[in-house]
Amino acid sequence: MTSTESGYPDIELLVDGRRIGAATRETAAVENPATREVIGRVPLATADDIADALAGAGRAAEAWRDTSPHHRAAILMRAAQLLRDRREPIARAMTLENGKPYGDSLGEVDYTADIIDSLATEAPRAYGVVLPTAGDEGRTLVVTEPVGPVAAFTPWNYPLTVPGRKVAAALAAGCTVVIKPAEETPASAVALADALVDAGLPDGVLSMLFGDPAQISETLIASPVIRKVSFTGSIGVGKHLARLAGDAAKPVMLELGGHAPVLVFDDVDVDEVARQALGAKLHNTGQSCGSPVRFYVHQAVHAQFVARFGELLAAARTGDGFDETTEMGPLANSRRFDAMAPFVQDAVERGATVVAGGAGDDSVGYYWPATLLADVPDDALVMHDEPFGPIAATSVFTDEDEVVARANALPYGLAAYVFTKDADRALRLPRRLDVGMVSVNRFGVGARDTFFGGRKESGFGSEGGPEAVHEYLVKKLISQG
Ligand code: NAD
Fold first, then answer.
1. How far apart are CA 51 and CA 30, in angstroms?
2. Ranges for the Aldehyde dehydrogenase domain (predicted)?
3. Closest CA to 51 of 178, 231, 174
4. What values do phi and psi take at 376, rounded to 5?
5. Residue 298: other Cβ atoms inside 10 A
6. Average pLDDT in the 83-97 region?
7. How far is residue 147 CA from its own chain's centroid?
């Protein structure tokens, strides 16, 4: 099929077990970034809807907390299986609303289901401790309990995986959730809610709102019902929500932007690194917090790397995600498209060379070609602001200490990549890089069962692994005489 044969599903809010469709609410358009056509309408929550979602989360909290963790896990695993059963229609809607290639959308459905399974298995492992006490002091227990109702906010770049793992971790821990996914990509998030409800999630345990982000976040975070705030998205919005949470003395979990450095030493197989870098840069059209951006390449191999990587990027096919020959879809929205040209212009003005791509065309969809900028000075915009698009920049280095200092120089601290055949260096470098996740001789960070998170302004806390469930647990000391 093509993007124009839409078949995009109707979008409904989920408010304390009630579905609210577009007919009875103000709506916003959902656009297909491959064609710029309006493919659907998302209903916008009213103040009453937000209040009802909060009431549901508060009312359902105690019963969900007291539901056996095995039963919570079983619901999550049933929902994961329903996502797998529905993978084709969900992936179709995802490609329509986000633009990513259909095969990647299928992969995102499968990956999300696997992550939900993984988090479900953590539900019964919320162990506490029993402390030995001397003499007649009785028993001392430290138990874990769910933190309480969670307000969650998720972006459009992984429109199923990010809500999926956030919601699954909180539900596994025994928390109820009110989530506001991105208005640009609502169908993927609604598919998650549908799967959970169909799997047996009780009313009120999950509410899903779309609407005015500021109104929803201010209302939810200020409400005494909400006990934890969890956000994935930009650093600016993350800081804003953390300030709101600070005013209400509520804990926050933030997964924000990244600006991943790639350290390519002179002992590598240049062709192999360039080939891997191509896949990593094209993935999700560069709209990933872990996307490689700053390629620091050793002087001895820089020219060779730039030539090969540039050749591969220039040959990459950009197009509609339903076209089987497409290797990279459009940018997901006009904001990302508009953000690209200034990165290129600024780098060129500062002396960089455009080796591949460099200019987009939004006449049909938000298409920006895979772009390589070479010899980019450190003060260029692209070397310190997250492009969140298919732009890679290279710079020469000669010395390990120098390149580590440059890699660590930004306020970001999410992901970094090291390519070297030297075993000592491969062990040493990950320790020296001030980030939450490092991959050596491969791209990609995170896996279904692992910690996933950043440092510095990239945020704190984990989106994955057992740590993700612990984000939604608190300790309680119980002393018994
Ligand atoms: P944005 O900050 O405008 O929006 C990000 C998300 O936050 C959206 O879903 C939006 O609805 C929501 N949001 C915005 N204002 C809000 C508010 N006041 N309260 C609650 N939610 C609010 O960014 P954008 O233009 O959508 O994306 C661009 C930037 O976002 C990128 O440069 C990148 O740094 C960052 N981003 C990061 C991730 C990630 O995985 N960490 C994902 C998507 C975007």
1. 25
2. 25-476
3. 178
4. -90, 125
5. 21
6. 98
7. 22
Residue nearest to atom 29 of ligand 1 (CA): 234
Residue 92 class from Cβ within 10 Å (0-12 exposed, 13-18 middle, 19+ buried)? buried
Active-site residue, from 108, 184, 255, 386: 255
Q: 3-class DSSP state for residue 296?
A: strand
**Phi/psi of residue 358, nearest 5 degrees:** 115, -20
Residue nearest to atom 24 of ligand 1 (CA): 234
pLDDT tens digit sequence for 381-432: 999 999 999 999 999 999 999 999 999 999 999 999 999 999 999 999 999 9
Strands (E), 265-303: 292-298
Q: Which of 31, 97, 184, 289 is catalytic?
A: 289
Q: Going by CA atoms, what residue is nearest to atom 38 of ligand 1?
A: 233
pTM above 0.85, yes or no: yes
The Å distance, Cα 238 to ligand 1 centre, comes to 8
Residue ranges around ligand 1 (CB below 6 Å): 153, 155-157, 182-183, 213-214, 217, 232-234, 236-237, 240-241, 255-257, 289, 335, 386, 388
Contact 320, 34 (CB under 8 A): yes
Distance CA(206)–CA(8), nearest Å, equals 23
| Residue having the nearest C-alpha atom to atom 44 of ligand 1 | 233
- Average pLDDT value over all residues in the chain: 96
What is the torsion angle, in degrees rounded to the nearest 10, for the CA atoms of residue 441, residue 446, residue 449 and residue 450? 90
DSSP 3-state helix, strand, coil percentages of the chain (rounded to 5)?
40, 20, 35
Strand order across the 18-20 sheet = 18-20, 13-15, 206-208, 177-180, 150-153, 228-232, 252-255, 459-460
Residue-wise pLDDT for 323-334, tens only, equals 999 999 999 999
Rounded Cα gap, residues 336 and 341, in angstroms: 10
255 carries an active-site annotation: yes
How far separated are the first and last CA of the chain, in Å rounded?
A: 69
Q: Going by CA atoms, what residue is nearest to atom 43 of ligand 1?
A: 233
Query: What spacing in Å lies between the alpha carbon of 61 and ligand 1's midpoint?
Result: 28
Burial (0-12, 13-18, 19+ Cβ within 10 Å), 459: buried
Ligand 1 centroid to Cα of residue 237, in Å, is 6
Nearest to 31 by CA among 22, 40, 44, 23: 40
153 close to 217: Cβ distance less than 8 angstroms: yes
